Amino acid sequence: MANSKLKLYYFDIRGRGEVARLILAAAGKRFEDIRFTLDDWPEYKKKAPYGQAPLLEVDGVIFAQSLAINAFLAREFGFHGKTSLEIFKIDEIAHLVEDFVLIVARNFHLNDEAEKTNGILAIKVNDATRYFRFLEKILETNGTGYFVGDRLTLADILFFDVVTGFCSAYVDVTNEFPMLKNNMSRVCGNAGISAYVAGRKDSSF
């Protein structure tokens, strides 16, 4: 995999493509970050086997589905579990995070701006708090500052993306969640992620 040629195709936003970018940044893996506009999407859509992005091209072969892409990259670059149980736990957290992301996505795509604004507040107060309590408990139980094991994994990167990426307007890591705040600092402690985040453009999604 170290010598494989990778191309990541996604819109010029964070969205569903950002976790893959963060994993690759953490790994220090060079890749082509191919970003396009909504107007350009019909041309790139011809490459998409299921009509959706992101897409990951590995040595000329196109793969799709963000959860699968993230899990693949995490395995290949050492950010997945070392044992079957660690893998199980990381996958569990990935699907827990996905449940929250889908709640945000439904509100994000509302056409009524007033309804959307009210939804942001409701999600931040209710849903985000509920899911953050789940995640805080996982960190407390693990006891290392990381969600799984004693090192950076996909689970930590997924949470970091929730707080800094597409869902950022819907969440607030308050002092109620000291372990989550500490976990974010640990993710930022990765040199590759720190450099990538410092250089990426401001975006609300």
Give the gist of this structure.
The chain is α+β, with helices and mostly antiparallel strands and 205 residues long. The protein has helices at residues 18-27, 41-45, 66-76, 84-108, 113-142, 154-164, 178-188, 191-199, and strands at 6-11, 32-36, 55-58, 61-64.
Features:
structural constituent of eye lens, alpha+beta, 55% helix, four-stranded mixed sheet, 4 strands
Question: Layout of helices and strands, plus pairs?
Answer:
Blueprint: E1 6-11, H1 18-27, E2 32-36, H2 41-45, E3 55-58, E4 61-64, H3 66-76, H4 84-108, H5 113-142, H6 154-164, H7 178-188, H8 191-199
Helix pairs in contact: 1-3, 1-6, 1-8, 4-5, 4-6, 5-7
What does this structure look like?
- The protein has helices at 18-27, 41-45, 66-76, 84-108, 113-142, 154-164, 178-188, 191-199, and strands spanning 6-11, 32-36, 55-58, 61-64.
- Strands 2-1-3-4 form a four-stranded mixed β-sheet.
- Helix 4 (84-108) runs antiparallel to helix 5.
- It is built from eight helices and four strands; from the N terminus they run E-H-E-H-E-E-H-H-H-H-H-H.
- It is α+β, with helices and mostly antiparallel strands and 205 residues long.
- Helices cover 55% and strands 9% of the residues.
- It starts with 5 loop residues before the first strand and ends in a 6-residue tail after the last helix.
- The mean pLDDT is 95.
